[in-house]
Amino acid sequence: PRAFRQDPITKAQLASLFEAMRWAPSCFNEQPWRLCYGLAGEPAHARIVGLLVEANQWAAKAPLLIVLFNRRNFSHNDKPNRTAAFDTGSAWMALALEARHLGLYAHGMAGYDVARSYEALGVPESDYESIAAVAVGAHGDPAELPEKLREREGPSDREPASAFAFSGRFAG
Question: How is the chain split among helix, strand and coil, in percent rounded to 5?
Fold first, then answer.
């Protein structure tokens, strides 16, 4: 959803979301994901809102905003970690599933200023890749959204498994 209530995220909810991420699988148990977050009313929340593209400004109402990063290289040998984004995706999915378990929703977004995210959030670009932004909160009233977004406030279609799962050889 894009409609969020402004109910605060509790410390217990925040801890539970991050604990779920902690247990996500990763190559060499590297846990390459890092995140910067802001709770509503904090300067960090406003800083992340400032990174969102105009089409994602609806997320300003979400009580928790996150920007996800992944470490580019393994910590144990400083070689490139080609699965870092894959592993960060598993951590994002763990957060999204835990959000639902807590009665919350998580909405991932590609629409933010990736280039500015490094400086704005104090993350060294040489060491980390900016991956995605996430809005988290309780589902709000879709009627509060602009009409164009209201129309999109519902489950989106998915391709059937036959469109992406191939036995033996790629057939796409």
Answer: 40, 20, 40
